[in-house]
Amino acid sequence: MSHSLDETTHDSRKRQHLATDSAYNDDAGDGPIRPAVNPAYLNQHTLERLREALAGQPPSGQEAVAGVWQDAESGARCLATPFPVLQLPRFFSLPEEATSHAFASALQVELAEEPLRHRSNDLFDFHQSWDAQALQGRRMHGLRDVMSSAPVLSIVETVLGVKGLMPGRVDMAAQRYDRGGYLLCHDDDIKEEVESGVARRVAFVYYLVDEMWSAEDGGEYAMFDTVHGQPGRIVHRVLPERGALVMFRVGETSWHQVEEVRTRVAGRARWSVTGWLYGPLDQSNASMSSADRASPASGSMPVPTFAPLTAAAAEAVAAVESPLAQWICDDYLSDEAVARVDERFADESTVQLCGFLRASARDRLARAILQLRTYAGDETSSAWCELGPASLRRYQMLADTCQIQDAATREAAQTLREFDQFMRSVPLAIHLGRLTSLGLGASTRAYGELRRITHGDYTLLRDDWKEPIGLDAVFHLLLKVPFDADTDVSPSAHHWPDADAGEAEWHGAYHYVSAEDGDLLATLTPADNALTLVYRDEGVSRFLKYSLQESGQLERLDALYTYQVDFGDGSDVDMA
């Protein structure tokens, strides 16, 4: 947009008035207390420089450093890749308040008096206020007014290039991330808004952290690049800064997350206000069909399917006791045990079998896991491979093939593969069918994998990636580390903390939820050498809650396998 000298001067005077008049109504009346926009961000020349920098074309002689370009006059920072992000320090501070954050400080005090809801699901864990419209605080109402006002929308349209933003249309709420809080990888793009023609166009975060917040406290805003439509690796991180406003365009490539808050300072939390500005749907997205929008995910992440078990039917029936006796504790092989487990499963559709593996098999498997933990191989020789993308999962899976030179480590990897084959075997399927009366047999199909779970691992629920339903068999080994193979007789089991007893909360359990409304149906708390059986029918989804386990204390193996259930008559089992 071009301006004559007179128009620019007139605009500057209007903006100066808008920036300063709210300084006089801080305690006057009962209406909203509107913050003053820093005049540095109302200067048209500054905004043009920021626009060029976000487009990857900073002014001549002012190159970006480590991917970040900083404006010398305003202090604003621009990240052009992996997607444009604008960081505006002291957004509501006047020049004479350069080292002060009066509004941010007062707003945080106000928000501390508001009731916050603890919100926790597969994607996030934090405390959140109701929408700003429902709050009592005058400063929160004032912030909402200003964020959807013409001057701020003009800044956004000029710098981010988003046109047609709707004055007065904004969603906004406050969040408090305590130690262990997080928001995992997502893109803020709400696909359901395609039909309405109005969508989230710009996301913003106004930081209220204390001025001593550092990278050691965590909670950084992390940005992912995009590979085949999915998040790749983290390429930039933005440290929360008191009084700074961060904004970016919402889209299918704006993959980002709030990293885990790690602060150990008592009473310190990551406070912020987040929201979205609305406008007409971006036509580049609107023209895409639902199938087109889902295709990148489907193409790069094949949905799991059932596969035949590992033994031929005749061989399996003839040798049904041999592999079971090799792996499973005798307590779960007798007819009495089968009847007892079957009765409980019929009542609850789930049952946990503690001490499932016989001691010798458990110790052999445990030693193999610990051996692989200490092996320092490169990516091509590692027994574990990390799975993604971050918008769906993060954990390590036992690799199909690898080239390990060390004989002991090679033997350990083979032990895990033998256990994987046992979990996929017909003899085990037949025995699980006896334990549950679900009729599993030689023709049963299954899918599954061995997972190494460490701090920060998780899985997320997605509409375009669903697991087949059936009987889930979830097995855990929880091992104390370090382990000395020369002096320790047997790898020791690690106790999973009991949050109800005041112990540290590690999360990291598998949660079963209603796919329709997200209601929690069951939680599988990990326990060493325990196999949990759960019948998961239509309308039930599961996810691994983000794990906060202390990796320096624990080595964890999860075996997750699902067996296809065919009732023949179309009947089903309800999960209570």
From TrEMBL:
Its cofactor is L-ascorbate. It catalyses: [ribosomal protein uS12]-L-proline + 2-oxoglutarate + O2 = [ribosomal protein uS12]-(3S)-3-hydroxy-L-proline + succinate + CO2. GO terms for molecular function: iron ion binding; L-ascorbic acid binding; peptidyl-proline dioxygenase activity. GO terms for cellular component: cytoplasm. Residues 1-38 are annotated as: Disordered. Residues 168-279 form the Fe2OG dioxygenase domain. InterPro entries: Oxoglu/Fe-dep_dioxygenase_dom (IPR005123), Oxoglutarate/Fe-dep_Oase_C (IPR019601), Pro_4_hyd_alph (IPR006620), TPA1/OFD1_N (IPR039558), uS12_prolyl_hydroxylase (IPR051842). Residues 1-11 have a biased composition (Basic and acidic residues). Keywords: Dioxygenase, Iron, Metal-binding, Oxidoreductase, Vitamin C. It holds the Pfam family Ofd1_CTDD. GO terms for biological process: regulation of translational termination. It comes from the Eukaryota. PANTHER family: HISTONE ACETYLTRANSFERASE COMPLEX (PTHR12117), PROLYL 3-HYDROXYLASE OGFOD1 (PTHR12117:SF0). Belongs to the TPA1 family. This is Oxoglutarate and iron-dependent oxygenase degradation C-term-domain-containing protein.
